[in-house]
Amino acid sequence: MATTGFITLLTETMPAGMLPEMSRDLGVSESAAGQSVTGFAIGAILAAIPLTKATIGWPRRHLLLLAIAGFAIANTVTALSESFALTLAARCLGGIVGGLLWALLAGYAVRMVLPHQRGKAMAIAMAGAIVALSVGVPAAALLAKLVEWRYAFGIMTVLTLALIVWVIAAVPNFPGQPKGSRLPLTRTFRIPGVAPVLLVTLTFVLAHSILYTYIAPFLTPLGMAGQVDAVLLTFGLVSLVSIWIAGALVHRHLRLLMILACALFATCTLLLGIFSGVPTLVYASAALWGLAFGGTSTLLQTAVAEAAGDAGDVAQALLTTGWNVGIAGGGIIGGLVLSGLDASWLSWVALALLVPALATVLTAREHGFTKGELGSR
């Protein structure tokens, strides 16, 4: 499950570390190249809810293998494509299977363990995504500089094929849900606590995506164009610490951890806005950013699963859609900011989005981001 998350998120975010190289090779601007991340997210937005509902009765391992195979196709086409339009189409295909996978992973992981281990199971399953951010994206950025960005997507295809063999050999199968047990989408959304979690997901990920997708253009005016991979590595390594903390404490301190995540990320964007000309503080901000973001997926997925109860699969699909709306919106809004203003505004726009995220967590104390121990209600 963790390796599947690794491949999913790395496929989604790799362009952030190689925008200059992709834009030159495909003959488009950096803001246009950034839409390769948006294209992935749009595919996930379009697919997560309808595909999850359509396949909710399928055997879980069959569905998992089908989605992973979709990544092999999408990454192969991206690696070989000479056309920006074809690249966007391949990225959209990756997003379609990625949206299905994100909705599938959390529920799959928790079915393997006892109820009191659900938070840790989600944390382990999501750890692969954070490894992708901490090691994968910086490595891909370095590979794009040393050789060519296409090799990174080719390597992803090889890893994906190996993962298919591993899943067949090691992952247990589970049946889908019986038709009569599925809750309608609108009823799931109205369950107390689900809507606040989705709102925080949207605003938090939107703020993250605005900065992460355009980190290279943000750092270039600061004289740090050659340090994109190092800044991303700083962010990613601290993210690993964050996901460990989230896995250890999520069941007792979900609300506190989410408040801290929003506050730390807001502090990061404030530092980047005021002290962006100081490289040391840029790295310190990247560390705060990683500490805030690393465990967020675990926190949000645990919160929506706890709130939704038996409607967990549909709620996870809603969460996946909100997450990818945030990523797509970050690519679009960040591109507009980059084209109409300048890169220094990216951190201020992100800060403006984190204010309602923090306010929502603070007010959703009874449902969504609860004070008590999860699973005790």
UniProtKB/TrEMBL annotation:
Name of the protein in its database record: MFS transporter
Species name: Streptomyces nogalater
Annotated localization: Cell membrane
Membrane topology designation: Multi-pass membrane protein
Pfam family, one: MFS_1
Keywords: Cell membrane, Membrane, Transmembrane, Transmembrane helix
Major facilitator superfamily (MFS) profile domain mapped to chain residues: 1-367
Record field: transmembrane: 32-51, 63-80, 86-110, 122-143, 149-172, 193-215, 230-249, 256-275, 281-305, 317-339, 345-364
